[in-house]
Every structure is written in structure tokens, then in C-alpha cells.
Amino acid sequence: MMDILRAVQDRNRWISPESLEVIAERTGLTRIQVEGVASFYSFFSLTPKGRVTIRLCDDIIDRFAGMEEVAAALEEALGIRMGETSRDGAFSLDRTPCIGLCDQAPAAMINDVVVTNLTPDRARSIAAALRAGTPPEEVALPGCGGLTPAERVQRMVAGNVRHAGASLLGPVPAEAGLRKALEMTPAQIIDTVEASGLRGCGGAGFVTGRKWRFAAAEPADRRFVICNADEGEPGTFKDRVLLVERPHLLIEGMTIAARAVGAAEGILYLRGEYAFLRDHLQVVIDDRRAKGQLGQGIGGVPGFDFDLRIQMGAGAYICGEEGALISSCEGLPGEPKTRPPFPVNRGYLGFPTVVNNVETFCHAARILDRGAAWFHAMGTEGSHGTKLFSVSGDCLNPGVYELPYGLELAELLRLVGGEDAAAVLVGGPSGTMVDRANFHRRLTFDDLATGGAVIVFSPRRNLLEIVEYYLSFFVHESCGYCTPCRVGNVFLQQAIGKFRRGLANPEDVEYLRDLSQTIIETSRCGLGQTSPRPVLTTLDNFPLIYSAVIKPSSDRVRASFDVQSAIDTARKLAKRRSYIFDRDFGE
Amino acid sequence: MIEDRKPRIATVSLAGCFGCHMALLDIDERLMALMKLVEFDRSPLTDIKTFTRRCDIGIIEGGCCNEENVEVLREFRRHCDVLVAIGQCAIMGGLPAMRNAIMHSDAALRECLEEAYITGPYIRNTGHAIPNDPALPLLLDKVYPCSDVVEIDHQIPGCAPSGDIIFAALTGLLSGKFRGFDPHLIRFD
Questions:
Q1: Closest alpha carbon to A389 in A203, A196, A253
Q2: Which of B15, B18, B135, B167 could bond to B27 as cystine, CB 3.0-4.6 Å?
Q3: Which domain does A81 fall in, by range?
Q4: Which of A503, A511, A550, A567 is the best substitution to test chain B (most B C-beta atoms within 10 A)?
């Protein structure tokens, strides 16, 4: 379903009511079911979009990097505002949350390709080139016609690998892990991965070996291995770098997982924002098929069959949640599933499914090559091996750093040139906002856990603005299934707005905490369970930014209630002034 | 200096139906006991319409649907030590807040008034006009609970709360012992 909708969207630039009818008829679904899917994803449009859609990355990092000026330049050059499509159907202009290029902000997507390090001048010249009919690929990367897909992605986007560690970004011998796995039994592979201490690198940190063991133990006819390449947590872009630099290692890791759990089918779920990587990855997959590293009897082992397909996402943060990701692969709206059953028991199409992050699969392949003890020896107790950190924001060297777990945050800040940071958001908005007094804390699962995002904020930044931005992000990305998340996050955002306007009372701090707790306790998936964290962690670590703007009222009348704006509509309807609140009423 | 006087209670019905005031009277013969303890000041029960002195307890029925409600509520806040919101309308907006449900409209208030006075199927309004006497207070864009407009000290939920609950809360407040209700008293499921 996702592929059908994407094809229709790409060809017609929208999904018309007629298309919905046809798709419903051909797939045997009702029109409303198809519309339910199409309307769920940001990159599908039920109104006509331009032939060229420019989506500016609206992350807070991009805003701080001058995104508003770029937006203004584009609006002026194209003659349309944000969210509009030009009359001649040539251009659409939109904002979109983090597209995984925070290390080279401000960035934008032009159809399926990306442009980075934008300035107003660059934006104007891009608009002019597009107007002149230059294809988006040529605009993003002049002369791209003669390049291979791998060369294209490497030149279109800077890798920004700042520190290569022992496991992933250093020299990696090809297929070494897979070769060893072929000589082992599935149970030995699982034992090795479990003994290495490898934990999921997407953020949740579940023990990988155990996940594989559960999936392998479940009696079933079919099993699946899915790679979660939907890194949507704002400030995370480590998987982008792996997909560009280590695609073979990733698929090697997936193939090993398939052997371990007995899966013959796999899916690589690639976020819609990374569409520019699709051709590159497809080439890698085709290449491996040709070499007998995918397909039937892999490596000459009879009965070891595994093949995979790429599933494109379509702009939904929630699809990084494994249940939602599986729903999306099944052609449904990306809504999380009720747990249990867990995906390892009943996942994709009801079959046992292993869903792991890009980085996790890559590590697994390396572990098979170098051995469990090698990996286990790196890092700290409970957090073994190395981790990719994608660092962005106010630092000299934004980019990807592969380092062993257990590093102090302060050490990382020294490496990235961000020593004067006032606050660091570890783990993205679902993580922890850390103050200077806590820079000695360590990057491990048990202290400061992160899926990779480390965002540095200098003392010039307004933390309440940042908190409000992230809440607006969660409001936008909530799937809407649970009321506390759908509505509660809106209330949280409004409450923070009150603080920013200087209208908050002391009791509003309690309100923030209460409401946050309610959202956390009553939401079904990780989105609602973590969305209040920007509020809670700043309340804990930066209480002064709140108390500085609180004004206790002297007469206990709420300053936040603006009677003038409340009666303004009625004043206009009744065509008279207020007897009570317009002082010049008698004149 | 502590005045030797009875505590003074003021009450008002804003955007409510007077049901909560009826419930106040529902404390029946205990009114006699209450009157020995307190004195009613500004209230529909006494027909005193303005504050002339400070009161100890202000009881608010109904939320704020128009500018006069806002003005009166603010006056209560300025003149009363403790404000008690009684009933759903005062606490949440209640029935009048149903008009807040006209959300996805550019002109929600006009739509609401037109349906109420002109286009509604059961309307018999020979003038075909929305009332607009200069003496009518202007409506607010939506109905607000009292706690949006002023700080409220205590809430007594219910529609309307029973006389027993009101009596228990008032006597508790007067003796300085009121600390909120036992959960089982304000459960409705």
C-alpha cells in the first residue's frame, strides 16, 4: 500500500479522490481505509502539490542556523508562502521536522534529493535554477548524471565522520562476519551476540541477543528481519552516515540475524526523508544478490535463503516505533500496536519479527567477525562496545563520533568543540537536557542514555523556546490514538507558551508536572511516554529558567486571561463597545 | 486585631442555572445552624448587589460566558479571602461550554448566535435579529471556567453538588479544617 501510494504521489504529485477509489478497488479495501493511510503520512497529499516540492527542515537547529531567513528568501523567490502551492502547479513550499542533516543545517529536501548548508543567496539561486527547469538532482548536485548512486550520495551530503571507532567507522573487512556466521549454528550466533552485551542502538537498548532468541524460539512458518532506518529523533543522523558508508555491513548484519532466527524475508524500512539514499541502497542489494550474498543458498549453504526489500516511509516520526513501523510495512496508518504480543512473537503479518536499528545490525556483523569478548571488553558494565553519537548544534565540529560507551559528556564536548555549552540535550527531545553541573555524567544506558543524538546549546539560546519547539514537534507527530498524548501535548505546549509570555503563576509549575505525569502514565507507546521529557528534564535541571519568568499576581486575578481579546469578536458582531471594559465608552 | 464578628459569605451565579444555589438551600434545616455561624453578604439570597466590605468566603456558581461574568468574578476575587467554585459550570464551563465545541469555524460565535436566534429549526423569532441591546453584556469568544480568569481556592464538583456536600465543605471551611474531600465523596462511577 505504501508503495502504491508513493508511486501515485510521485507521478501525480497528489493522491486524488479518483486515485483513492481506484486503489481501493484494486486492493479490495474500502476507500476510507485507503484514505486513512494516505492522510496519515506527511509526504502523501490529498490536495495537488507542485511538480517540485521544497521541504525546509524546521528543526530548532535549523532555525538557529538561519532557517527563517532561508525560508523568507524562498518565499520571495517563488512567490508563495510556506504551506502553499504556486498557481501554475510548479512549486510547493513546506516545513518538515528534522530530516537528519542537523550537522549541515539549514537543510531542505527538493522532491527526493537534499540540499544542505543553505543561505538566503543559495536559496535564491536554487529557486532560479528550478524555475529555469533544471531537475532537482542537478540543482542539488551539478553534474550528477555521470556518477554512480554511491558517489552521488557521498557528494550530495557531507559524511562528517569526525571520529572513527573500533567497530563501525574504522577499517571493516568485507563479509568477515557473515563468513564466520555461515560456519556456526544459529544457536551459536545468538549465544555470541548475547555474550557480547550488544544492546539496541535505536534508543530503547533492549538486549539484542535476547530479542533474537525470543524470535527464534517462537514456533512459526515464516519469520522476518526488519531494519529500522527511520531515525526520526530530532538531532539523530548516525544511521544516515552508516547507510552511506557501511551499507554492505548493514545487510551483512541483517543476513546474520536472518540466519540466527531462521528468517527468509527481510525489510529495510527507510524513512521518507532519506529517499535520496534509496537508489544507492538498491544497488547494494542487487549487487549482493548477484554475488550470492542474498537469495537462495547464501554462501553455498543449502537451505540458507534470505532476501529483502526496501520499504520507504513517508514522513512520520512515529514509524520509528517498532509497532508503528510494522503497521506501516503492512500498509496501515503508522499506529503503534498494543503490546503484548511483542513483535518477536507476533510481528509483521503476525509472524515472529526481529526489528533492529541500523547500527545494531552493523555491530552484530562486527561481533561475529571479532568475537563477543572483543566487543564486551569495550565500554562499561551494562553498556558494551562503541556507539555512534551524532552531534549537532552550537559546537565547532558537528558530525558523527564513534566512541566507546562510558565517556563523560564533558569529554565528548571537548572533542566536538562545544566546551562553552550551557545545556546539552542527550538523546534528542525524548532524552535529557543536561546542565553544566552534570556534564560529568557518562554516556551509558544507565546514566545518560541516547539513541545517538547529542545537541549542544550555547548560553545564547533560550531553553524555553527550545522546549516549546520540541513540544510542537510531538504535537505534530502524535499519531492521535491516545487522548492523553494527542490532547495533553497541546496543553503542555500552551502552558509553556504561558511561561514564555510571562503570564505563568507559581502553581503552573505543578500543572506542568502533573500533566506530564498523566501523559507518561497513560500513553500506549514511547512517544507519549517520553514527550513530556523536555519539560521535566528542564524543570529538574534548569529550574531557574522557569522561576525567572513566573509572576505571582498581587490580586490573584489571572494575567493570562485577556478579556480584551475574549470580547473582541462580540464587539465586532454587536458593532458596539464594551460598557465595562472600554474606558471611553461614554465618549 | 481580630474582629469579633460572624464570618461573611458572598455568593453569585454567573453562567449557571441557579441549580447550585438551589442545592445550597437543600441543606434544609441546617440553614438555621449555618445562619448562627455566618452572615450572608452580597448574594442573590439577600439581594445585596455590590460589595461594601470584605468577605471571608465567596461562592461561585457558573463559568464565564460574558464580560459581566468576568467583571463580577474579578470583584469576588478582590473582595473575598477564599473563593469556592461550586458545580461543573464554575469548574469546567459545564453546559454553556457546549458552544465551545463549535471549533472548526472561522466565526464560531456568529454561527452560535445565528443558530440560536435565526436559523435553528425550532426558533420563533419574529424580529429575525440577534438581540443587541446596549445593556446586554458582550459575550466572550468562548465559555471559560472560573479558574482561567482568577485563582480559585476550592472546587466542589457536581451538577449540582448535594446539599450534604456543600454543608460539609462550608462547615469544614469555617472551622478551618477543610482539606478537600475524601475521594469516595466525589466519585461518580
A1: A203
A2: B167
A3: 2-148
A4: A567
Residue to mutate among B60, B66, B67, with most A CBs inside 10 A, is B67
**Nearest CB to A555; choose among B77, B130, B149:** B77
CB contact under 8 A, A557 and B140: no
* Binding-site residues on chain B for chain A (CB distance < 8 A): 66-68, 70-71, 74, 77-78, 107, 109-110, 113, 130, 132, 134-142, 144, 148-151
Q: What is the ipTM metric for this complex? A: 0.88
Chain B residues lying within 8 Å of A572, measured CB to CB: none
Whether the Cβ atoms of residue A270 and residue A230 lie closer than 8 Å to each other: yes
The answer for residues whose C-beta is within 8 angstroms of residue A449's C-beta and 6 or more apart is A203, A205, A426, A427, A431
Residues in A touching B132 (Cβ below 8 Å)? 574-576
Q: Do B141 and A569 make contact, defined as CB atoms within 8 angstroms?
A: yes
Residue ending a domain, among A395, A428, A457, is A457
Give B181's pLDDT tier (boundaries 50, 70, 90): confident
B110 within a domain of the structure (yes/no):
no
- What pLDDT is recorded for position B117? 92
At A351 the pLDDT is: 97
Decide if A226 is inside a domain.
yes
Q: Kindly determine whether residue A580 and residue B144, on different chains, have CB atoms separated by under 8 Å.
A: no
In a domain, B52, yes or no: yes
Residue A473 is assigned to a structural domain of this protein: yes
Select from A457, A474, A495 the last residue of a domain.
A457
Positions of chain A with pLDDT under 70: 584-587
Q: What is the pLDDT of residue B1?
A: 43
Q: Do A571 and B138 touch (CB under 8 A)?
A: yes
Q: Is there a contact between A556 and B150 if contact means CB atoms under 8 Å apart?
A: yes
Residues A29 and A102 occupy one common structural domain: yes
pLDDT tens track for B33-56: 888 889 999 999 999 999 999 999
**Which residues pair with residue A109 across a beta bridge?**
A55, A114
- Chain A residue with minimum CA distance to B74: A557
* Whole-structure pTM value: 0.85
Counting the structural domains of chain A, the total is: 4
Phi then psi for residue A224, to 5 deg, are -130, 150
Quote the number of domains for chain B.
1
SS (H, E, C) A494-560: HHHHHHHCCCCCCHHHHHHHHHHHHHHHHCCCHHHHHCCHHHHHHHHHCHHHHHCCCCCCCCCECCC
